[in-house]
């Protein structure tokens, strides 16, 4: 199980001209085109890829959220594990 869901919010989407598949994302066997200001939420533990075959920049805001299948107890244990690793110098932000 993945611990997170990832939100992709396209802030700048290139003009794709006649090629509607020039800039997009595929998760599993489903492909989507980017739509500016329309968020896409995905479980990135699935096979996925993104592409931009234009000459323009594509800018996304990425936000990670707890996966809804992770219980409160599991969240607390995971946070505690990272706090312990930080205290031991094993993990730094």
Describe the structure.
The protein has 93 residues and is α+β, with helices and mostly antiparallel strands. The chain is built from one helix and six strands. Strands 4-1-6 form a three-stranded antiparallel β-sheet, with no helix packed on it. Strands 3-2-5 form a three-stranded antiparallel β-sheet, with no helix packed on it. Strand 2 and strand 3 form a beta hairpin. The protein is elongated. It starts with a strand and ends in a 6-residue tail after the last helix. The mean pLDDT is 92.
Secondary structure: elements and pairs:
Layout: E1 4-12, E2 23-27, E3 30-33, E4 40-42, E5 48-52, E6 59-66, H1 72-87
Antiparallel strand pairs: 1-4, 1-6, 2-3, 2-5
Report mean pLDDT, rounded to a whole number: 92
**How many E-type strands?**
6
Low-confidence stretches: none
Main β-sheet, in a few words?
Answer: 3 strands, antiparallel
What would you call the structural class?
A: alpha+beta
| SS summary, helix count | 1
> What is the chain-wise order of helices and strands?
EEEEEEH
C-alpha geometry: elongated
Task: Summarize the model shown.
The protein is an alpha+beta fold and 93 residues long.
Which labels suit this protein?
three-stranded antiparallel β-sheet, 6 strands, 93 residues, 17% helix, alpha+beta
């Amino acid at each position: 199980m993945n611990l997170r869901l990832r939100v992709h919010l396209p802030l700048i989407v290139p003009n794709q001209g006649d090629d509607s598949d020039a800039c997009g994302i595929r998760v599993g066997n489903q492909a989507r085109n980017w739509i500016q200001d329309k968020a896409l939420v995905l479980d990135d533990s699935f096979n996925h890829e993104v592409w931009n075959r234009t000459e323009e920049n594509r800018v996304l805001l990425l936000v990670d959220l707890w996966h809804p299948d992770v219980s409160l107890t599991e969240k607390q244990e995971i946070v505690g594990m990272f706090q312990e690793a930080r205290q031991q110098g094993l993990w730094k932000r």
